[in-house]
Write a structure and sequence with these properties.
The complex is a heterodimer.
Chain A (H helix, E strand, L loop, with lengths): L3 H10 L4 H4 L19 H22 L10 H13 L2 H33 L1 H15 L7 H8 L3 H25 L3 H9 L4 H35 L8 H10 L3 H29 L10
Chain B lengths: L1 H6 L18 E12 L2 E12 L3 E5 L6 H8 L7 E5 L4 E4 L11 H5 L9 H10 L15 H13 L5 E5 L7 H18 L2 E5 L3 H7 L2 E6 L2 E7 L11 H13 L9
Parallel strand pairs in B: 3-7, 3-8, 5-6, 6-7
Antiparallel strand pairs in B: 1-2, 1-4, 8-9
Classes of the chains: A mainly alpha, B alpha/beta.
């Protein structure tokens, strides 16, 4: 029937030519026929940031933005160079990185443990999930004064704040990951003779992994955010300390440098998680963000 | 997670009060089975026997309780009353393949077997369903028919005395389904296990089964023995007569009762 239609059209028009047969149809153009010069994707993606840098340079150069309010890009770069050469920046990054790692480790262990308890056991759900739901609504940044009272002003309140920030997104996503495991697959596991531990190991945990990794990505983002807040508490080293110092001397170039360093560190950890996702979830039908 | 909770005990559903059934030649023994969902008794006083090595097809309208019966026999639903006895070793294939997407094909096949995953064993069963070359593939790369064959291999690898098939070909296209039916008949002849095939396809039931049961009103309403030689010719007059009869029992006989 479909094949017959062009013939029918040709008859009514009364011509036997190709153009007539195709009357009322549109020709699908091959994509490459549009012939235009295409930049490599990587080069195109550089364009936006470069324009941004240029405008920044232009505005500070022409005095639209005063140099006191915003240091020009080349001044930020030279500040970075000096701080790297004298070792200040590296030791600051190392101090901050340690806080994030410890906080993340502690928060991660707490979150995963609680998520397993709540996800795998009814009793755990009743005891843990309601409590976490309640605590989650407390703005964790607001706990800084309390943490200073509890832990003093050393490393401990900073690590505790990072740990607290990490715990909730990781808990929620891991718990949801466990609870979203396809019930049909759990049933199949049962019919294959898997016991409770076998089901957890072969069905529930691998099924919860995508959710847990989403949580990991969120929580690492939160970890760096928590660090920025934490390092405002009387830090004597770290990137936050560098920033506070610069604030006292109106060194906006160093402040911006520190913000850039925070951003780069955040991006790096995000990249690590994305590689981890690619490595751990090759079986998935779709990737996210890679 | 109730399925998880049930799993701790569900591993060896054996006998729930056998009355007069000799274990040697009986694969399934059910008397007075009742399964109610709320007030609705989906299975109501059902009796059924399946001999060892017998191929039985179970027909019925959607919602008549045939899948529920299969789940009960598989030990997946135990909110029941009555006597149910099944073999210790059971293989199940569901309507969707239900492969663990995070396990490669061969690991799916041997999942749940005791001891270390045995690649050789998986391979031998995968070659039986013609898929040995996909042993290390991820399930997502398989077509629907291939995934269903893997799920058959997974059901057979535990050398079951009873194979439960819950409309395993329902989602396949017509050509793939015919191939899969032949494959199942072949596997059954080789392994000699009892099979209960739940289906809504009258022709399919007549191609593969020794006996066809029609479920209605919560019990087995009709039953017919198929004594045609295999492989069966769908054009054989007796085949046609049986199909007409079954369709009439199912209330869709277009040509009237045979």
């Amino acid at each position: 029937m479909v094949l017959g239609q062009p013939d029918l059209a040709a008859e009514t028009i009364g011509g036997g030519e190709l153009a007539n047969r195709a009357a009322g149809l549109i020709t699908v153009q091959p994509l490459r026929a549009r012939g235009r010069v295409r930049l490599p994707r990587g080069v195109r993606r550089m364009f936006g940031p470069l324009v941004f840098l240029f405008l920044w340079w232009l505005f500070t150069k022409t005095g639209v933005l005063s140099k006191v309010a915003l240091a020009p890009p080349q001044s930020v770069a030279s500040a970075g160079w000096h701080l790297i050469v004298d070792g200040t920046l590296i030791s600051a990054i190392w101090a901050s990185l340690q806080r994030v790692l410890w906080g993340f480790l502690i928060g991660g262990v707490i979150a995963i443990t609680l998520a397993l308890l709540a996800g795998l056991f009814r009793l755990g759900e009743d005891l843990v999930d309601a409590t976490m739901g309640m605590l989650r609504t407390v703005p964790w940044v607001g706990l800084i004064p309390l943490f200073v009272v509890w832990f003093g002003i050393g490393e401990r309140p900073k690590i505790a704040l990072v740990a607290l920030g990490v715990t909730f997104p990781l808990y929620i996503n891991t718990y949801a990951g466990i609870r979203n495991v396809d019930a049909g697959l759990v049933e199949t596991g049962t019919s294959l003779g898997l016991g409770r531990w076998g089901l957890i190991r072969h069905v529930v945990l691998p099924g919860a992994l995508p959710g847990a990794l989403v949580g990991l990505r969120y929580s690492l983002g939160i970890a760096w955010l928590a660090l920025v807040f934490a390092e405002q508490i009387n830090a004597s080293n770290g990137i936050g300390y560098l920033m506070n110092n610069a604030e006292n001397y109106f060194e906006t170039n160093v402040i911006i440098l520190c913000l850039v360093v925070y951003a780069i560190l955040g991006l790096t950890t995000d990249l690590i998680v994305r590689l981890l996702i690619r490595y751990l979830l090759p079986w998935r039908t779709s990737y996210e963000g890679t | 997670m109730s399925a998880l909770a049930a799993a701790t005990e569900a591993t060896g559903v054996e006998t729930t009060g056998v009355a007069g059934a000799s274990a040697a030649d009986t694969a399934v023994y059910v008397r007075g089975l009742v399964r109610a969902f709320g007030d609705r008794r989906v299975i109501d006083g059902l009796d059924v026997d399946i001999r060892a090595g017998e191929f039985v097809a179970l027909l019925g309208h959607s919602g008549c309780g045939k899948s529920t019966l299969l789940r009960i026999l598989a030990g997946l639903d135990r909110n029941i009353e009555g006597h149910v006895a099944v073999p210790r070793r059971i293989g199940v294939a569901f309507q969707s393949p239900r492969l663990m997407p995070w396990k490669r094909v061969w690991r799916n096949v041997v999942l749940g077997l005791p001891g270390r995953p045995d690649r050789q064993l998986a391979s031998s069963y995968l070659s039986e369903v013609g898929l040995d070359e996909y042993a290390t593939a991820w399930p997502k790369t398989l077509s629907g028919g291939e995934a269903q064959r893997v799920s058959l291999a997974r059901a057979l690898v535990r050398d079951p005395d009873l194979l439960l098939l819950d409309e395993p070909f329902g989602a396949l296209d017509a050509l793939t389904r015919i191939k899969a039916q032949h494959l199942v008949a072949e596997l059954w002849q080789r392994h000699g296990c009892a099979v209960l095939l739940v289906t809504h396809d009258v022709e399919e039931s007549l191609i593969v089964a020794d006996r066809v049961l029609v479920m209605d009103g919560g019990g087995i309403a009709h039953e017919v023995r198929v004594e045609l030689p295999r492989p069966r010719d769908v054009g054989h007059p007796e085949f046609v007569a049986l199909r007409t009869q079954l369709l009439a029992w199912l209330g869709v006989g277009l040509t009237g009762p045979a």
